[in-house]
Design a protein that fits this description.
about 30% helix, twelve-stranded mixed beta sheet, TIM Barrel, binds iron/sulfur cluster, binds S-adenosylmethionine, about 350 residues
Length: about 350
Amino acid sequence: MSSPTPDETLQERVSRLRSEGRLVDRFGRVATDLRISLIDKCNLRCTYCMPAEGLPWLPKEQLLTDDEIVRLARIAVEKLGIEEIRFTGGEPLLRPGLVSILDQVTSLSPRPQTALTTNGLGMARIAPALKDAGLDRVNISLDTLAPERFVALTRRDRLHDVLDGIAAAQQAGLTPVKINTVLMRGVNDDEAPALLRWCLAHGYELRFIEQMPLDGGHIWDRHQMITAQEILAELQQHFDLTPDPAHRGAAPAETWLVDGGPIRVGVIGSVTRPFCGDCDRTRLTADGQIRNCLFATEESDLRAALRGGASDDELADRWRTAMIGKRAGHGIDDPSFLQPARPMSAIGG
Ligand code: SAM
Ligand code: SF4
């Protein structure tokens, strides 16, 4: 759709990409990766994400219907150059229409790559149906292998179900199965080597994610956060890590081959090693708002336009406009940083 022309100025590049219909911002970044939050509700209560009592859930009439989600996904793929769609939440496996949505999205042309980020509860049952519907791969969140810690971290006694779900995803071929781990000081920060050993033994790819100021309970504290550097230093005491020769591109994780490979480990230093300059993401919330960044403080309401009778071209134009003003970076380290009003579970992580 767009080939690089080395002699053009930034302004020329932005105008060209805009005229090609792409989701370009004023810094010339192009969004090709769409994250769709299917639901804000969740069946766990991870302490870094939600308070014990949950959050005020979105009223049903505000949630996009399955048909609305598929329509917006189609516009994204056909008109805006989206190449990959990740479904998330809240907990996306709680969305009753998930299999049908996937089925329709993977029938789009050109067919987007599809992925799902989930806590794994219910995966043991649904993994084959997800595979049949065309899902390519999954990330499953797991912060500890110790049952009592799991209860403390998620406020639910479901470790076994998550482990069964992870095994089922692998068996169904939703591979490579990636495991997402958030380390918290004094809670599970001693578990990095054990988690990596477990992943190596099962053929899963582990990703550590720095804890971000996106929790519904506003408990994030910069000084309590386990940094990418700390995680790497700890892993290097137990494993031989060599930089992954594969090109990183816009991927948020920096990856290393573990003990010569082929299995890799990744660290997503969202806070201390931001990758905003290469960001290729756009986000659609469960209630139909476009966000140009996880940390955006403004949203663009596609649901109202869609329900007001907007055409596909009008919706595509609104989406392009929502992206052009994307900020250069998340600015977590700026004194003026404001945590977005919506928590991660409502934006879609
Ligand atoms: N419920 C699903 C899950 O847990 O995988 C999908 C949604 S969840 C918001 C997506 C990812 O965001 C999970 O891997 C979770 O660990 C991570 N996450 C949630 N809150 C976070 C925070 N404050 N900082 C960093 N990662 C966070
Ligand atoms: Fe639920 Fe995922 Fe948030 Fe945990 S991280 S409470 S599983 S949305």
